Structure formats: C-alpha cells, structure tokens
Amino acid sequence: MSVTVRVPAKVNVQLAVGGARPDGFHDLANVFLAVGLYDEVTATPADELRITCTGPGADQVPLDRTNLAARAALALAARHGLDAAVHLHIAKDIPVAGGMAGGSADAAGTLVACDALWGLNTPQGELLDICAELGSDVPFSLVGGAALGTGRGEQLRPLDVGGTFHWVFAVADGGLSTPAVYREFDRITEGTEVPEPLASQELLDALAKGDATALATALSNDLQPAALSLFPSLADTLAAGRAAGALAGLVSGSGPTTAFLVRDAESAAEVAESLLASGTCRAARTATSPAQGATVVRGR
Ligand code: C5P
C-alpha cells in the first residue's frame, strides 16, 4: 500500500526583501502563486527511511537525510513517536535548484503522504508548523493557490485570484544557491537603507481581478539584481522572452529559472518555442496558475 501526493511549484509575483535580520534571515513581503508544474511524492512502508528520485535533474537531488523530504518524514514521525520507516519516491518535474520551491514541494508532499500512510490526521495548523520549521517556502507548498508570505515568508495570508494566468518558465543551465543569492543581495545593498518590505496593492488588485496586463506591470523581485549578478546570462534569457512577446519577464524567486507572464495558451506556446530557439535556456515549460496545494492523488 502506498500514498501518492502531487505538489505544485511556485512563482513569486512579488518578492520584496528587507534588510538582514539578526538571525540572518530577511523579512519579506512575498506574494506566492502556485503554478501547475508538479512533483509527485509516493510514500510506501519500508524497513527504514529511504529516498529515490527520478525525472529531470534527479541526479542533483541528495538521497540522504539532508533531503528536505527526509527531514519532513523524520519531523512528522518524531512528533507522533513513530519510526520513519518509509520509502519516499520523488518523481520530479519541478526544475531542481531553480527558484521554484521544488525542494519545499517535496517536503510538503512528504508530510501529506506520510500523514495519510500512517493514518495520523494531523490538523493542518500542526502540519504548517512543521513546514515552517523545515523552510520558509514549505508552508506555501502545502496550501497552494496564492498567498502573501510575511516574516521570513512562512506566515501566510491566502489571496484571491480572479482568473487563470499563463506562464512560460525558462529553465537555466545550472542552479543557484538561495543562501548565496541572499548574500549577494546583502553585498549589493550594503551601506544603503533597505526599505521595509510591503506588498503592492496594485499587484494584489491585479491578482484578484485576474488581469494579466496589470499583473505584468506590477511584477517585481528584489532578488533579481543579485541573481543576475551571480548568473549574468539570465539577462539574455529575459531579453529573449520579452522580444518573443511575453507581457513581462522576471527571475523566479532566487533563480535561475526565469518566468514570463503571457496573454494566453497560444502565446505561451509561441514564447516557449522562441525561448528554446534563442539558445538562452536549457528547456522552456508552459504552465497556468493558480494551482492546488499538496493533494493526495493515489492511495488513501
Ligand atoms: O528557509 P529556507 O531554508 O528556504 O532558506 C534558505 C536560505 O535562504 C536561508 O538559509 C537564508 O540564507 C535565505 N533566506 C533569507 N531570508 C528569508 C528566506 C531565506 O535570508 N526570508
């Protein structure tokens, strides 16, 4: 008997970053939008905790206890006095180390899968507490949809989304380390007064109305200069996507995936084709948002 859970990727339609806090994290106004690119986590009883992984970039995913999915299973088991005797299989489709919360998705998926497999019925509030301990983006992967994340991104307020948004994601050749991008942000902003991060009302209104043109104008990512500084060729990808007819383009989270908001499915296919032909990315994926959070798709 196994349980399989499907978990979406995310794009940050606004990522406002404050100055470094004493604990090294940064206060954020982080507007998360779940997008329909999914990893699947399957939990099966086993003699001991074991992880396997397949899909694009699977060779870069650690299979030991440093994997966020392993830590999620151990944290849930510890809370209930159980042994985490489970085989976790991760079928990856979210770009690895891409700034789309793939690792966070696997952790959230593992919590939901193990909770169902072990028949725990853990209240969602408790699952969200475990998520927040695992990483700043993990709570959002659990709930999906759209949300404003404050604090280090883990305190969530659900947001209304009034329509479907169409995206193209350009997958870069290589990854970026999130801590390294935040360090670069600190270096770039050193000696300047970093303003308090605030959500843009214009952006929240555009989301609520489902207005892609208005959302395109309001997209912003304070980590983009840092990501471009560490990965300069992303500027070429952004230029190629805009030239291909995207309404707007930006670095997704800490990168190096770039996200292009487009008018409709037809435009998405065209922009994806042009991006690939431009030779400025390794792959181009189309997806829509919002998408549902971690959901059991097979098993109990
Ligand atoms: O919370 P998470 O483990 O995903 O964060 C990864 C790294 O990103 C942190 O160690 C920190 O360097 C950086 N970070 C940050 N401020 C945040 C979220 C993450 O500085 N709000």
TrEMBL record:
Gene3D superfamilies in the cross-refs: 3.30.230.10, GHMP kinase, C-terminal domain
Family to which the UniProt record says this protein belongs: Belongs to the GHMP kinase family. IspE subfamily.
Protein name as catalogued: 4-diphosphocytidyl-2-C-methyl-D-erythritol kinase
Catalytic function, reaction form: 4-CDP-2-C-methyl-D-erythritol + ATP = 4-CDP-2-C-methyl-D-erythritol 2-phosphate + ADP + H(+)
GO MF entries: 4-(cytidine 5'-diphospho)-2-C-methyl-D-erythritol kinase activity
Free-text function comment from the UniProt entry: Catalyzes the phosphorylation of the position 2 hydroxy group of 4-diphosphocytidyl-2C-methyl-D-erythritol.
HAMAP family the UniProt entry points to: IspE (MF_00061)
Domain GHMP kinase C-terminal: 204-276
Organism this protein belongs to: Streptomyces bluensis
Domain GHMP kinase N-terminal: 67-145
Residues the record marks as active site: K10, D137
Domain of life: Bacteria
This protein's record includes keyword Kinase: yes
This protein's UniProt keywords: ATP-binding, Isoprene biosynthesis, Kinase, Nucleotide-binding, Transferase
Recorded metabolic or biological pathway in which this protein acts: Isoprenoid biosynthesis; isopentenyl diphosphate biosynthesis via DXP pathway; isopentenyl diphosphate from 1-deoxy-D-xylulose 5-phosphate: step 3/6
Binding residues annotated for ATP, in chain numbering: P95, V96, A97, G98, G99, M100, A101, G102, G103, S104, A105
Enzymatic class: transferase
InterPro entries, per database record: GHMP_kinase_C_dom, GHMP_kinase_C_sf, GHMP_kinase_N_dom, IspE, Ribosomal_Su5_D2-typ_SF, Ribsml_uS5_D2-typ_fold_subgr
